[in-house]
Amino acid sequence: MNKIIYLFREGLINIWRHKMTGLTAILSLSISLYIIGLLSLGEGNTYKILQYFRSKYKIEVFFNQEVGNEEAVGIIHKIKKIKGIRNVTIIEKEDAIRIFKDQFGEDIIDVLGYNPLPVSAVVNLERNKKESIRVEPIIKSIRKINQINEIKYQGNLISKIERNFKKVTDRLPIISFSITIIALLIIYNTIKLSIYSRKESIKTLQLIGASRLFIKLPFIIEGVLLGLLSIVIVIPSLLLTVEALNYFISNYSTFSITLGVDLSIFLKLFLMTTFITFFGSFRASSRFLK
Amino acid sequence: MIKFQNVSYAHNKGYGVSNLNMDIPDGEFAFLIGPTGSGKTTLMRLVYFDLFPDTGHVMVNGFFSNKISKRQIPKARKSIGMVFQDYKLLSDRTLFENISLPLHVLGFKTKEINSRVEEALDLVGLVGKEDHFSYELSGGEQQRACLARAIIKEPDVILADEPTGNLDPVASFELVRLLETINETGTTILMASHNYSLIKGRGKPIYELKDGILRVR
């Protein structure tokens, strides 16, 4: 126990002895971890944004004139069965008159003497699917159903959003992995420098009978502590960033999205940092302590 | 106990030691003399397993150079105290921290460390200088600090490689006296020096190294 306390203290002293190197390492590590954290938060929230767009996206289906409200309900059941559709809301002839009046300020019966507006339906897409939703096959399937006169939708906007979402999520692991390697190299080189600057002390320790592990441990502890200090900077920074983004979205944009923070990301970040700093400093001390 | 049996070692540049045979029993104080470059440091390094013989073998406290594994070297060195000409004190640590270092390596408790450091400082006459850094001490004081660090773990063997090399005659004499006092407690001591006048007439065996060849004087 005494030995462990001593070695832990040595690790702390090592950081203090190489303040500038340590500070540089902490800042570089913090930047790397911040980017990884942002990417992880981004991944979670991109899906949320996608869900938001999916919920706003609608397909309007107009039935033939002769289709009555009851027949429309039957058709709607068929539409509901199409893959990728969450719900379908019927707009009966009477509703259509009301909507027309809301939009144009006049009663269409007064203008034309009859109601020319067909029964229609608003189709909403599935929101919670992880895989991307393609609109074209849905439109094709709807068209195949009898008694459908016209389909109106916002083109391929949702598909474009879906494609971009996929592009981002596909690249995230590669980007995160690359930054993790950078973080690993930062800690590896910091420990390497620390070992070089303490070469004389290491030689003395070897001569008085210190084991390899006894000499290595303070360097490993130093590496892990640098990582943990970086985490202390990164977590509040990420929380502040999300707060700031939410403030800008709610005050300066038309979107009604609130970005969320999945706290498990911080746990993952903590575990990842502990692992890479341990691994990096272990490798460096094993390689340079002969 | 230190035993050399037909030991030869050559450095890359050619010099080294040749066919050494030496037997220093437990509790003995032996001197090793020879001019600079005669192989004294090489012999010392062979004792603390920093070098390994090309032929023959060295035995120290039951550890054999031809059998010892890399992992066992720290264990072997734990029973050896070393005093160097250049002291090898850590300049970023206080005298107390330097002297207590071997005890931390051995995993001693704080209380035991404090009392042992106190004793060692008392023995080498450095009480009151615990908080000084090595650069704040004179050459003689640094060498005594180095000796305190060597004896604090109560080793079976002390190797002193030219410990008086950087000291004035008075400090040199005092150091040898100190080593003799330590030897009286049963510690085996091998001290290398090129200063014959310092060691002659002390009634201790003297090994002379010249051009890598050893003979008893």
Overview features:
heterodimer; A: 290 residues; alpha+beta; 72% helix; B: 217 residues; alpha/beta; Rossmann fold; six-stranded mixed beta sheet; four-stranded antiparallel beta sheet; 10 strands; 26% strand; globular
Walk me through this protein's architecture.
The complex is a heterodimer of chains A (290) and B (217). Chain A has a 4-stranded antiparallel sheet with strand order 2-3-1-4, with helices on both faces. Helix content of chain A is 72%, strand content 9%. In chain A, helix 2 (19-56) runs parallel beside helix 9 (212-252). By secondary structure, chain A is an alpha+beta fold. Chain A is built from 10 helices and 4 strands, in the order ααβαβααβαβαααα. Chain B has 217 residues and is an alpha/beta fold. Chain B has helices spanning 40-47, 72-78, 95-106, 110-124, 139-151, 169-183, 196-199; strands spanning 2-10, 16-24, 29-33, 55-60, 63-64, 80-84, 157-161, 188-193, 206-210, 213-216. Chain B is globular and about 45 Å long. The two termini of chain B are 20 Å apart. The chains are: A alpha+beta (290), B alpha/beta (217). The A-B interface holds A 2-3, 6, 17, 200-201, 203-212, 214 and B 48, 50, 71, 74-78, 80, 82, 88-90, 92, 101-102, 104-110, 149, 153.
